[in-house]
Amino acid sequence: MRKENRENNGLRPISIIPDYIIHPEGSVLITVGNTKVICNASIEDRVPPFMRGQQKGWITAEYAMLPRATAQRNIRESSKGKVSGRTMEIQRLIGRALRSVVNLDVIGERTVWVDCDVIQADGGTRTASITGAFVAVVLAFGKLLENKVIDKMPVLDYLAATSVGILADGTPILDLDYEEDSQANVDMNIVMTGSGKYVEIQGTGEEATFTPEELQTMLQLANSGIKEIIEVQKSALGPLAARIGELREENS
Amino acid sequence: MRKENRENNGLRPISIIPDYIIHPEGSVLITVGNTKVICNASIEDRVPPFMRGQQKGWITAEYAMLPRATAQRNIRESSKGKVSGRTMEIQRLIGRALRSVVNLDVIGERTVWVDCDVIQADGGTRTASITGAFVAVVLAFGKLLENKVIDKMPVLDYLAATSVGILADGTPILDLDYEEDSQANVDMNIVMTGSGKYVEIQGTGEEATFTPEELQTMLQLANSGIKEIIEVQKSALGPLAARIGELREENS
Amino acid sequence: MRKENRENNGLRPISIIPDYIIHPEGSVLITVGNTKVICNASIEDRVPPFMRGQQKGWITAEYAMLPRATAQRNIRESSKGKVSGRTMEIQRLIGRALRSVVNLDVIGERTVWVDCDVIQADGGTRTASITGAFVAVVLAFGKLLENKVIDKMPVLDYLAATSVGILADGTPILDLDYEEDSQANVDMNIVMTGSGKYVEIQGTGEEATFTPEELQTMLQLANSGIKEIIEVQKSALGPLAARIGELREENS
Amino acid sequence: MRKENRENNGLRPISIIPDYIIHPEGSVLITVGNTKVICNASIEDRVPPFMRGQQKGWITAEYAMLPRATAQRNIRESSKGKVSGRTMEIQRLIGRALRSVVNLDVIGERTVWVDCDVIQADGGTRTASITGAFVAVVLAFGKLLENKVIDKMPVLDYLAATSVGILADGTPILDLDYEEDSQANVDMNIVMTGSGKYVEIQGTGEEATFTPEELQTMLQLANSGIKEIIEVQKSALGPLAARIGELREENS
Amino acid sequence: MRKENRENNGLRPISIIPDYIIHPEGSVLITVGNTKVICNASIEDRVPPFMRGQQKGWITAEYAMLPRATAQRNIRESSKGKVSGRTMEIQRLIGRALRSVVNLDVIGERTVWVDCDVIQADGGTRTASITGAFVAVVLAFGKLLENKVIDKMPVLDYLAATSVGILADGTPILDLDYEEDSQANVDMNIVMTGSGKYVEIQGTGEEATFTPEELQTMLQLANSGIKEIIEVQKSALGPLAARIGELREENS
Amino acid sequence: MRKENRENNGLRPISIIPDYIIHPEGSVLITVGNTKVICNASIEDRVPPFMRGQQKGWITAEYAMLPRATAQRNIRESSKGKVSGRTMEIQRLIGRALRSVVNLDVIGERTVWVDCDVIQADGGTRTASITGAFVAVVLAFGKLLENKVIDKMPVLDYLAATSVGILADGTPILDLDYEEDSQANVDMNIVMTGSGKYVEIQGTGEEATFTPEELQTMLQLANSGIKEIIEVQKSALGPLAARIGELREENS
């Protein structure tokens, strides 16, 4: 059995506290089991050099862990003087995923900086970051709407992420904690929209392989998990929840 | 008048939540007004190379801010690939201060890593870090006592810190928030022990100077403030509070 | 129509020249259309620190492009003083993929260093790297067999990779060149074994999303493409081709 | 007794050679006992980005040691690729101290770069740097006066620094050499102006603490020492000495 | 005897394949014995900051080795995060040599980036790089002539390089391979023009010295070798060969 | 005419002050015209990893300039976080030159660290560094002889360096100052031994070329200059001068 009698297709308890830090335009603390991530979204009134003059915005993400977010203390990346490959990979993933559901033309030449800082880790930090960052970004756009900087919510659809995997005994499971992740033969991160489309699929058989049938089972587990997670996002967003997709509807 | 009708010799509300993060040996969240710092203390069973073979321990500190701990987003030091002068200065200060009240011979060849991560900043982050880190370190030693790795609390006295300053109009004030700090002519950080001895005095007249009389007034303000702060540390520590100084008493 | 009348499910011409560079234990030049990658495999008689004492080997990969491999000159990563996120992501992918089909226990405490250096790029450099690196690694193990350092080929199965994608008009295509890749809504890299199992699936809808049906179509395209590629690997390997999987058969 | 029969309240022999290096606008070699520092002040006709458009100047300092300035050879910071925390702390201190006695509005949008390079070290290198840098900066402003770039000396008051400390046996001493510094329980650096005001007070009880009474004793020792040092600065400055403070007098 | 019965004054077989990589304006693969270098020349329509506004161009070179170009695998400089002293020295040499035979005024504010990437090394990589880079640069200028960006070939004379040395037994030899280079007492690289003038002479007696007579012998060997090499450059250049020096003749 | 009526074949005034800094085993201040370099030699009782177990020593050199050694302030290499190509080239040159006249077998597994720090520059800093470093190294070996760590002076011959060049008007000159160096068409650094053998010849025609005849003229100028410089080294060395070459004589 999984810890705390969790079903193989069950998520860990999730909560999303909005407006967690006072300074950023959008901020949440997301908790998924024992994984806790502060997601802050900051709006900057300019875009990076490669985007200038295109009349559209950009979303970029940074991800980090506090040194004792993990059971063993990690050396701080600022002390090492460089960011690890794993960190860069996660940062690129978060940024790409968020950009896929935002109409960047609508926000003008602005950059949304998303900072995901893991203060406590127990597996699934990258998927929790995406799920939490989505809410932080919507809150930040809410601030722009409030200040009449923009007049439509530029977010086209919900976006959430979770992990699925296959244990050494062949059991497929949803939302792996750190211990499960260490033991799994296959580990897959899925990012999906509210309308059930894929944004990212990253499946890895580390020193192992997986069959086409196992792939299908994992995709189904992820599908049902992500629907549940989006409900938690909706209640964290309150009245702003209703404005997701308003631009899409208008265009259709 | 100061914000929220604070007296010139008044502290902002302080709270210290013990056992904040699950993985570290000692962990607190300290809140001083709007300043919030996670202080984690980790015990490693070896010392840095320059200390080996001396049969004594070491305490070292790292300090960082989340990018949006501040009103303007700061570039992450891991992205810049180097740690700023300000960060290094604060790290050295925290480490030195903690070492002054710990009997390093008693803890054996172990390193205490103290991580102070500012998640929200509003002035006084270095003094809040020292005050919180002290509690995290005592909690970590409590874990060693519990596991019978050591048999006496190696902490000789309480340790806390605060800031004092002189505003442009000459008013001396205690515990400056960010706005006050920006306007002050003189800024002084004082670290003291429970028995009223100095550990560090750092007084700076940035583009200004201060008289010997002003120095004395600031020292008195700090003195009374630090006494109050130590009471908050005591209640956060619970039963462990009684063990501070047991080694010193024994030796006397 | 695609360039040179290629079908949507057609691969570009592939060639793999074995023993391309004289110094490495295994070396190939792989050409996929206009993409050319030198893949060298070096055997080192020790493993990285985190693997020591485990009586097993390790495979690690590095990937780079010559500055003028591309239409625009890129700044050399050694001049920038750091490796980009994209490079790290690809390096981690190549290493993970190769480790999934090698029995690391059999090679003893040795590291296989795989260097994939793109001398000319036209899309699909990471999948060409995996396909070529697989052959270089088998050649290097062939050298160990020849010198009687090991007595069984430690490679359990073939391994090859290709890309699939969906153009803006919804057409699914196999093996994208650079121009197609720039225009595709969805880009997916698939790494598979000779027996048709997945090793890695990385599907990304950059500023776009894709449906479950589109995913299935892409998986089928990849499947047929990879079978063809493995035939090219076999002829490049010559007599060594027969020894792939000998360890697996024995164990079954 | 202290080396060479020095009294507890006695300074080591000090000399300041003006115009030591030919290229800089201001240059001195300061010798304090066996400590020797080349202090160069360079005038640049622009300010750093964060100061632009404010119609005022800036003073910034860099500090370094030759590798064999010390008894053991130190690794060159350029070889390590980064500047140590200690170096940064000293650089920030020197810059802050100099800015406190200069009217930055008067010098226009110019930067004064102060370089303090320790060629031989025997304790007190940071205080010797401040004392010497002050003279180098006045000499550089002298050059600007001579060339009629400015018409008043922008330096408001003298500025000098020294160290005080308390030995393990409780004896308070002035101007510690390296050996004394290594043995002291408390180490304090004081920067003061010609009119007896404090600019910086940095007192540290490394693995020790000090009482309020000890603090007062050290402040008095520093006070008398700094008066003597300022006399040496005056004679090094020659006719320029008379112009220090002319701006202040005018304003009063 | 030297390998493959080479005479002491004999070169190894040389070939230069023009238009080797498709993207760069000029590209060759030069082979000298077992040494193989890809030399690419790229034209950028601007000059580095220190050259701006001078109405003239610039030529800069970068040099690197693939990790397994050598018998032992080298750590990639991008992984080390810095470029070695040897690499920088070679880059500076290649750039300086090429600039000595090009009229930089004629090419306007353009930079020629020369990339020399050694894919297989067996001694003489820096001289092969210069010889090959010269041809790549002429090819790139040929592209500019073709596109009527310039109307005269800006290359004033041929440029080629080789090495000479003295073996431990005193024998002077031309064009050292790696093994000979390791055994030589003196190693000298000579860069000359088509008209027999020197551009660079770099003679080094590593842990040895050489007499004035030995110097003269080596200079003569180099002279005859370089004449032969220039013939190979001419045939690689085809019709463009005739245009080398047209500007010089015109001016005379 | 040259400055201060110097002849074309005349050196600038040279002085070498021995025992300049108190801590290093060997230390000099060398002055050549307005160029001033502190050369320190430190003995370390171990060799770098690549030399271990060979029962012989090593000599390595570092070179740096103070930021205001030059007319324009240079950015400190420690601030830039990396050492320039020019610096590395000079460091390698100094180390190679010194090793050519020292019997490394005699000094045992020791490293001689040579630090050349230019405090004032006016051309010829690399040749002054070699000339001064030679004396510092002999002084350091003198210390080892005195302490009976070694019993023969391991230095086989004198070593000195100077520059020669050809001005734009074709005049060959000896020992170029900064202004002459900037105007010269050809610049050549020569390192020779006391017995008139070459150690290094580095001749560069930056954006120019030079004829075989010009080369011979420059070699002769250097030859006579170096003889004069060695006389200055002899008088700086005092009684130690007599011991140079004692090992060589013995072996012959």
From TrEMBL, chains A, B, C, D, E, F:
Reported EC number(s) for this entry are 2.7.7.56
Highest taxon above the source species: Bacteria
Alphabetical GO biological process terms: rRNA 3'-end processing; rRNA catabolic process; tRNA processing
Query: What residues does phosphate bind to?
Result: 86, 124-126
MF annotations from Gene Ontology: 3'-5'-RNA exonuclease activity; tRNA binding; tRNA nucleotidyltransferase activity
Q: Which UniProt keywords apply?
A: Nucleotidyltransferase, RNA-binding, rRNA processing, Transferase, tRNA processing, tRNA-binding
| Stretches assigned to the Exoribonuclease phosphorolytic domain | 11-139, 157-223
Q: What class of enzyme is it?
A: transferase
- From the UniProt record, list the reaction(s) this protein catalyses: tRNA(n+1) + phosphate = tRNA(n) + a ribonucleoside 5'-diphosphate
User: Matching Pfam families, A to Z?
Assistant: RNase_PH, RNase_PH_C
Role played: Phosphorolytic 3'-5' exoribonuclease that plays an important role in tRNA 3'-end maturation. Removes nucleotide residues following the 3'-CCA terminus of tRNAs; can also add nucleotides to the ends of RNA molecules by using nucleoside diphosphates as substrates, but this may not be physiologically important. Probably plays a role in initiation of 16S rRNA degradation (leading to ribosome degradation) during starvation.
- Matching PANTHER family: EXOSOME COMPLEX COMPONENT (PTHR11953), EXOSOME COMPLEX COMPONENT RRP41 (PTHR11953:SF0)
Quaternary structure note: Homohexameric ring arranged as a trimer of dimers.
Give the family this protein belongs to, as stated in its UniProt record: Belongs to the RNase PH family.
Name of the protein described by the UniProt record: Ribonuclease PH
Species of origin reads: Compostibacillus humi
What taxonomic classification does the UniProt entry list for its organism? Bacteria, Bacillati, Bacillota, Bacilli, Bacillales
Q: List the gene name.
A: rph
